[in-house]
Write a structure and sequence with these properties.
Elements lengths: L2 H30 L10 H31 L4 H28 L11 H73 L3 H20 L6 E2 H16 L8 E6 L6 E2 L5 H10 L9 E7 L3 E9 L14 H11 L4 E7 L3 E9 L4
Parallel strand pairs: 2-4
Antiparallel strand pairs: 1-3, 4-5, 5-7, 6-7
Helix pairs in contact: 2-3, 2-4, 3-4, 4-5, 4-8, 5-6
């Protein structure tokens, strides 16, 4: 908690305490019907009141606040807290009683120790109660400040953990994709060097995307779609039948922002486990965009013996965790596996709250 906030909290407490004393004095003034002169207009009474009600309050509050909280309460040593709290109240009452007596020596206010024993004990008990009540408020104030500081610290820790977890997920996704695409180009080099050069440029664009744009929290959706198209082109070079993939985008992606590398793991998984690429429409990818949401669907036929791992070896839980981090309560993920069809439907809300 910032220092100025702590100071303001203390000033607010003592302002309220003085206001409470004022209300009590005003009630006493009205009750005694001595309206010719107010009590607090007499400096001698104000000095006596400060020694009687304000001094023990300050002593009790800051002893509990500065010493007893750290030494006993934070360590949950309640017995010693109680003992030293009582001692603090007694010492505070003796100090205040001595100040009141000194003021009386100079003709300000009534004395304490020159009265009978019953009066002395009564006054000292009242002063001790004032000290211990304010001491309790000191504990509450210090506890609140510490609780707030720990809350902010935990929020900062969670934020750092969040950033580290996202960075870890990206490093796990990127190498796997790069290995796949490099293998594809390596196969093409021996067959058609000119095409290999063309696809190498596509890979260069993808690597540039991964190095620079994936560092951002959000990127334009059109960039993500261009990245996916290049990825699909690179996958097509492994088969003589380019129609085994059906990829369609509906809607306007110009003004839409999305977290990078959200859709690719599903597409990568579809290519990895797609069965019999000689047939048409083995993989179907649909992306629908409107002002409120993005709907992504990826369906592929697979061989049961092929599907040993999901999401490119990353696992369902890792992908789900990333979505929970990036789009908490703003996404829906449905995964279905039938006899030979694997389907994913991901809906992401993109409208501003």
């Amino acid at each position: 908690m910032k220092k100025i906030v702590v100071v303001s909290l203390h000033m607010g407490y003592w302002g309220l305490y003085l206001f409470l004393l004022f209300i009590i004095l005003l009630c006493l003034q009205i009750g005694t019907r001595l309206q010719s002169q107010l009590f607090f207009k007499d400096y001698r009474f104000v000095a006596f009141l400060a020694a009687f009600a304000l001094l023990p309050a300050i002593l009790g509050f800051y002893t509990f606040y500065s010493l007893l909280f750290d030494r006993f309460l934070i360590k949950r040593n309640i017995l010693l807290l109680f003992v030293f709290g009582i001692l603090t109240a007694i010492v505070s009452s003796l100090i205040s009683g001595s100040v009141i007596t000194l003021l009386h020596y100079y003709g300000i206010g009534p004395g304490v120790f020159n009265e009978n024993i019953v009066a002395i004990i009564t006054i000292l008990i009242v002063i001790a109660i004032i000290a211990i009540l304010n001491g309790g408020m000191g504990l509450l104030t210090r506890g609140f400040i510490r609780w707030y500081a720990e809350l902010k610290w935990k929020e900062e820790l969670m934020r750092r953990n969040f950033e580290m977890e996202l960075a870890l997920i990206k490093t796990q996704i990127s190498p796997h994709f790069l290995f796949n695409t490099l293998n594809n180009i390596d196969v093409l080099i021996t067959k058609n060097a000119e095409k290999a050069s063309l696809y190498l440029n596509k890979l260069s664009d993808i690597m540039r995307f991964m190095l620079y744009e994936t560092k951002n929290e959000k990127i334009p959706l059109r960039n993500e779609l261009a990245y996916i198209e290049k990825y699909i082109d690179l996958q097509k070079i492994r088969t003589a039948n380019p129609n085994f993939v059906d990829f369609k985008v509906e809607g306007n992606a110009e003004q839409v922002q999305i977290s990078p590398m959200i859709l690719l793991p599903f597409i990568e998984n579809a290519f990895k486990h797609a069965d019999n690429k000689k047939n048409e429409n083995i993989i179907k990818i649909r992306i629908e965009i409107d002002q409120a949401q993005i709907v992504f669907e990826c369906i592929n036929r697979y061989s049961v013996s092929e599907l040993k791992q999901e999401f490119g070896g990353l696992g369902n839980e890792l992908i789900k965790r990333r979505l929970e981090l990036l789009y908490p309560e703003k996404h829906s993920l449905i995964i279905n596996k039938n006899t030979d069809i694997y389907s994913v439907k991901l809906t992401i809300e993109i409208h501003e709250d």
